[in-house]
Amino acid sequence: MRRVLPALSWLAGAVALAVLPTVVGPYYTNVFVTFAIFSVFSVSLNLLLGYTGLFSFGHAMFFGAGGYGTALALKHVSGLALLPAVGAGVLASLVLALVLAPIVVRVSGTAFAMLHLAFSQVLYVLALKLRAITGGEDGIGNFPIPPLNIPGVASLPMKDSPQNFYYFAIVLLALSLWLMWFFTKTPFGQVQLAIRENAKRTDYLGFKVPQSKAVIYLVSAAFAGVSGSLYGLFHNLVSADGAFGALVSFAPIINIMIGGIGSFMGPILGTALFLVIEEVTSRFTERVELVIGLIFVFVIMFAPLGVLGTAKMLKQKWLAGRTARDAVQRAA
Amino acid sequence: MDQTTAMYVAQGLHGLAYGMVLFLIAAGLNVIFGMMGVLNLAHASFFMLSAYLGFQFVSITGNFWLALLLAPPATAICGVLMERFLLTKVHAFGHMGELILTLGVAQIILAAVKGIWGTESLPLKMPPILEGRVTFAGLDYPIYRLFIIGLALAILAVMTLLLYKTRLGKIVRAAVSDAGMVNALGINIPLVFMMVFGIGIWMAGVAGVAIAPILTVFPGLADQVGMDAFIVVVTGGFGSLLGAFVVSIIFGLLSSYGVQFFSQFASVLIVGFMAIVLAIRPNGLFGARDA
Amino acid sequence: MNILETRGLFHDFSGLQVLSDVNLQIRDGERHALIGPNGAGKTTLFNVVTGTYAPSRGQVFFKGRDVTGWAPNELSRIGMGRSFQITSTFGRLSAFQNIRLAILSKRGIRFSLFRSVDKMREITRETEAVLDRINLTAERDRAASALSYGKHRALEISLALATDPELVMLDEFAAGMSRDETHYAVDLVRRLTEGKTVVLIEHDMDVVFSLADRITVLHRGEILATGTPTEIRHNQAVKDAYLGDLEV
């Protein structure tokens, strides 16, 4: 029974995802897509943050690059298919990461965070000012969204079919999550953890730390690009604020902090929780900054490990307490 | 001097004035980082808060000088409260904890400011003495900007004196170098931190009131000027006051000449400058400190 | 052959001369102790040799190759290992994960992205073998920082050795240990470094005399004397420099 349980859970989950649109209706289906997009975005940041200990404030720039890459490709390349368009977004992200990697792998800690904030500002300004390319403040909207062509099987229109888009997005995002999960399970995933714990010792053990950081950086950027690309397709709009704005920059950090920084699922849980908080508070107040600010302050002061982290810590304390109690009881 | 030169000099002085304001903000940020290792993302928010408080003082008393005198210390007190009751609690989580906390406080200040004063742009009237222009060397120049430059230089002079000629200054310089050691010598480091933090915020507060008549008081102040100050610190080098000074001036000049010659693209010029510097020296022009 | 050699090594920190004309020669297969009072430059010498810094002047030769200025990871890959006086492990990772990292590096698996590490049985087996040799099998899943001091030090030393280097640089491996723990550690080092060359920084003379084949005495950044323990014991210059510091 124990061996079958995980497989059953996955199956149940897959079925749930498959029937979701029909069960919850269009509004919540869209909410779910947003949740999925930001989950992937947050997990991609967590690869840098939670797993490698590299704190990036400006991860939005890869999200934005993905969005603009896809939008520009679709706008200027007539007849471009859907998957290559997403690929263009990922490529844009990767190129950006390749350009920045040599600089960023030489620094760590606060300098790393700040450099990223600085660079993402550069991109934000560029996105605003280079009107001819990026459409400035208005961004690029209403670009063609081609149908998904599965050769020989079907052609699924995406543009006005939220349901089709849902399935497309969910498959792509689930695949991304699985790939990132697998990444953390490889030997290279161990090197990531080592760099986080003790970069100096990692160097002395024979690992090339800057190059390793670069690889993690590229992987993280690529998946942020996927999420950004899908976000652009989802809204059929890519704009400077939507792609590089403050909320997009802070959201993944909040998600990671709320959910728990030290685990893979943490950011996903955090994304869900934050979306709920946003939905609820937006009915009462427009002061989105207040909510974000308060969450940041409270979480870092009282629950810095996030929901999952605190749960794990409590469980360990309980277990340790139980072992001690057992020992005392046996001795009594 | 002739018209063209006069124009260039005027632009230069504009830039210098802005650069000096940036330096007042960046200097505090820099010393706080150099000594405590904390990058205070709420620094620019306090700058903005002081401008708002200044506006409030002027509304009540009608006196600019009173505002300039009272708003910065009031803001500094808020800053110290944050340091004492919030910041000290998150040291355990290292830099990330401090960054997130100060980010949170920055958002809260923004919300508070919008909530209390609204989102419109508020004017802050400069004192009648400083209105008008002065003529020198064939150039007709607004007094107020000269006042800003003078004020900033005066504060800079006083700070330098404090740092290099007093015992407290010696302690602070030592603490920037090695806070742990100074602590071990029996000096109350938390108190020193608190004072330096307070003074840093105070300087930002002065900058806030000083620039308010020119920029007006609005919620985007923190983001706009704050980003500039932050770029100054990053480009000049963390922990380097000289770097902050040099880059502030360059920045101010780039900003004003940039607007004149490149209009739209002035900001691109500035961030481009930063990008180039960082590409060559990721720790900033004069930066040595590794976080 | 000399597996390690420094020629005319000088190093200064902002004008302060810490190493002066150090010509160290370590013979293949020997256990060589580096002793001297605090501030003599022992750790700096270690740092220069293992790549932490490049020397201000002079050269370092490893297995006959000029490796002056090479980075620590490069030196590790050609067979040099190093342990630290202040324990430097991967704190929140388990003992198993710590050792496994060293094994992965030894096997050249540094950028592998396509396999699940937990399923690599060879790696797991080797890691378990190392843990067994240092008696850490019971604690294999405990976080490194949660280990007792002695076991944590054993892990520390073991990390340096698990990459199977030909030359091991041990910086006060018995630092902070009790008498019993020290005896145990000396025995461990002796067992684990069979067939390897060892250079150790030491303050504890008992350890030096039970392990070292030869000793080099460092004083104020210069080599005062090199020789067998007996020779050093009777060396007048050494005695003069320390006036009984050697506790012989």
Describe the protein's architecture and organization.
The complex is a heterotrimer of chains A (332), B (291) and C (248). The mean pLDDT of chain A is 85. In chain A, the strands form two sheets. Chain A has a two-stranded antiparallel sheet with strand order 1-4. In chain A, strands 2-3 form a two-stranded antiparallel sheet. By secondary structure, chain A is mainly alpha-helical. Chain A has 13 helices and four strands. In chain A, 78% of the residues lie in helices and 3% in strands. Chain B has helices at residues 3-36, 43-61, 64-85, 94-117, 143-165, 167-184, 189-215, 221-236, 241-262, 266-280; strands spanning 133-136, 139-142. Chain B has a two-stranded antiparallel ribbon. In chain B, helix 1 runs antiparallel to helix 9, helix 2 packs parallel to helix 4 and helix 8 (221-236) crosses helix 9. Chain B is globular. The termini of chain B are far apart. By secondary structure, chain C is of the alpha/beta class. Chain C has one domain (2-242): P-loop containing nucleotide triphosphate hydrolases (Rossmann fold). Chain C is built from nine helices and eleven strands. In chain C, strands 7-8-9-4-10-11 form a six-stranded mixed β-sheet, with helices on both faces. In chain C, strands 1, 2, 3, 5 and 6 form a five-stranded antiparallel β-sheet that branches. The longest helix of chain C is centred in the middle third of the chain and has 14 residues, at 149-162. Classes of the chains: A mainly alpha (332), B mainly alpha (291), C alpha/beta (248).
Short characterization:
The complex is a heterotrimer of chains A (332), B (291) and C (248). Chain A is mostly helical and 332 residues long. Chain A is built from 13 helices and 4 strands.
- Count structural domains of chain B: 1
Largest interface: A-B, 39 and 44 residues
Note poorly predicted spans of chain A: none
**Class per helix and strand makeup of chain B:** mainly alpha
Summarize the SSE layout with pairings.
The complex is a heterotrimer of chains A (332), B (291) and C (248).
Chain A lengths: L3 H48 L8 H17 L5 H23 L5 H20 L1 H4 L5 E2 L6 E3 L3 E3 L5 H24 L1 H18 L4 H27 L1 E2 L1 H5 L1 H14 L6 H17 L5 H15 L3 H26 L1
Antiparallel strand pairs in A: 1-4, 2-3
Chain B lengths: L2 H34 L6 H19 L2 H22 L8 H24 L15 E4 L2 E4 H23 L1 H18 L4 H27 L5 H16 L4 H22 L3 H15 L11
Antiparallel strand pairs in B: 1-2
Helix pairs in contact in B: 1-5, 1-6, 1-7, 1-8, 1-9, 2-3, 2-4, 2-7, 2-8, 3-7, 5-6, 8-9, 8-10, 9-10
Chain C lengths: L1 E12 L2 E7 L2 E3 L3 E5 L6 H8 L7 E6 L2 E2 L5 H6 L2 E4 L11 H12 L14 H13 L15 H14 L4 E5 L7 H14 L4 E5 L3 H7 L2 E6 L2 E6 L1 H5 L2 H7 L6
Helix pairs in contact in C: 3-4, 3-5, 5-6
